[in-house]
Design a protein that fits this description.
This protein is mainly α. The chain is about 60% helix and about 0% strand. The structure holds protoporphyrin IX containing FE (HEM).
Length: about 300
Amino acid sequence: MKSKKNGPLNAKYEALNQNVDDYLEGLLYSKPINYWDYIQTDALLNLQIQRTVFPDEMVFIMYHQVNELLFKMVLSEIDQVAKNKALAPEFFSTKLMRISRYFDMLTASFTIMKDGMDIDQYNKFRTTLIPASGFQSAQYRKIEFASTELINLIDKRFRDSIDRNSSYENAFEHLYWQAAGKDYKTGKKSYTLTVFEERYKDEFIRFAQFYSTNNLYSKFKSLPEEDRENTELVKAMRHYDYTVNIKWVMAHYNTANHYLNIGGKTAEATGGSEWVKYMHPKHQKRIFFPDLWTKQEIEAWGTNL
Ligand code: HEM
């Protein structure tokens, strides 16, 4: 006889055409869950494989892994905004502020990385990492595609002239980050960029197609005027833009400078870009939500750092 207590349970399994009693019997034999199985600590702690004997290489690997985990958290928050059919400004701001806190963590913790490794060790173990580069972080690229319209990720030299309705293929070739690995005169791409595209280009195009109308900026623009003027929401949008595109970028740049600018001489990066120029926000001028900044703020973007 079905007990009244199991009413919602019965309803759930009946809807699936399943017998709830069979599931309840399974409970008799299933193992109780514990922390390490649930969090998968054994799997997680077995993912740190060094290529050299230097102990500080571990800091480098693990810090990148921490970043990738947080990138995944950021993408999951953006996904919830993207798929929300009745987006309210309060929900939107809450999500943006949470995403910004993840990036705040990444920005503040970059000093751990900057002052975390022995410079000599770093400059030795990094030679075994050529031609890999953080540039090849697919999740970082996805965060960009999910945050703004494609036009704002186009290299600023082509942004005004590119046809806004051009194909994804053409837009892709003009993304700002192509500059890290492409000679625009010859069109020749570096190995770092070539293999990155071989691995991810199709996935990126599919991802960018979904986010072409569901990115944070488009979501914001599709809100009624009253919501677009919501002070908290505008503040949260600007905060996120600034945190990623100035604060994180600068923390990253300062770290690169710390390790790769030795005695005033700049070393070549593992990914081979002209990094001093490429990485600084004043050159990239990557801004997710340009309408939310004044003309002066955009002109001054990254210049006073
Ligand atoms: C010692 C620490 C680091 C140094 C010296 C460093 C250096 C660089 C350099 C020089 C580049 C330019 C591309 C190249 O030629 O390789 C780059 C790109 C990049 N790195 Fe790092 N990086 C460090 C840590 C990190 C960390 C922890 C992450 C997090 C995943 C990261 C993510 C990226 C990303 C996403 C790019 C592409 C940025 C863009 O296109 O604007 N890097 N890095």
